[in-house]
Design a protein that fits this description.
single chain; 357 residues; alpha+beta; Creatine Amidinohydrolase; 2 domains; three-stranded antiparallel β-sheet
Amino acid sequence: MTRLKAITEALRIKGVDGALISNITNVRYLSGFTGSSAYLLIGRKTRLFITDFRYQDQAAHEVSGFRIEIVNDNPQGFILEKARAEGLQVLGFESTVSYGFYRGLLRKGVRTKALTGIVEEIRRIKDRTELGLIGQAVRRAEKSFLEIHPQIRPGVTELQIALMLEERLKKNGCRRVPFDIIVAAGKNSAMPHAHPTGYRIRPGDLVVVDWGGEAGGYFSDMTRTLLMPGDRGGTNLSRKREIYATVLSANQEATAAVASGVHAGTVDRTARDVIQKAGYGEFFGHGTGHGVGLEVHELPRISRVGRETLRPGMVFTIEPGIYIPDIGGVRIEDMVVAKDEGRTVMTSLSREPSIQH
């Protein structure tokens, strides 16, 4: 089923005559447009792409499957005029639309209905082209990490590593970095979403590096944790190795649990059980994974509240972690794609925590 056929069928199930797509990522997914401002008006026979003068030429080159309309003023009024003309009596709109835009719709007196996740649910399943681009994003990210890996050593700051890695990502073809790179060393590594600082790595530190690549608008997301060589008093090296081994086991067992037909919560529980049995359950507070595609966080959710059953073509992370204040944290994150039988691990970097220089 094509994307437009899938959205048309979804509208029928939701009981609306048409939908206004305003989330720019969803606009891109359905039309191919890579700009930053546009709307789609979709009905059973309606296919309108609406943008302004700034994107006239770009839309002409990128958009397929839609009639392009250039509107420079009052897009709400134009959209609702077209909705009436096309016989769209009940117009669905994405629940993420701004409140101001929503008020503009209401003032026009058209019956509206909020739609939650109508395109995102279709995006969960990646086609062959999408899988190819995500795979390329993985390879670019891994190549970049390997190029700066020798620089991750005592004396170098978190910020220096993050800047070097971002530079390599750009030089290796990523037009943008999917999120702010995390480099967290020492006590900072106990913060799952730490920002790089001027902290200089010390012998015996755990160093968490969380980064991703991009290809054709699709992203990758991965994390590796390193344990710095050298021994100092009070570094808790044996405890850190134990934590690392526990997280690695949780990552491996959760990955092995992935297959079509398995509930997302089952995968999360598999990772959580390993960490709980090792006595570190209170130190693993986030979900085990999340979908990755045109956004770095999208469906499916691999967590305690995940309500989805895995299906072939779903791409997501497996990223258990343990974070202990004053000692440090470990996270190991890989990307997998669910298959009819089992799964394919898309990431290939070594999970060996120790490095030698």
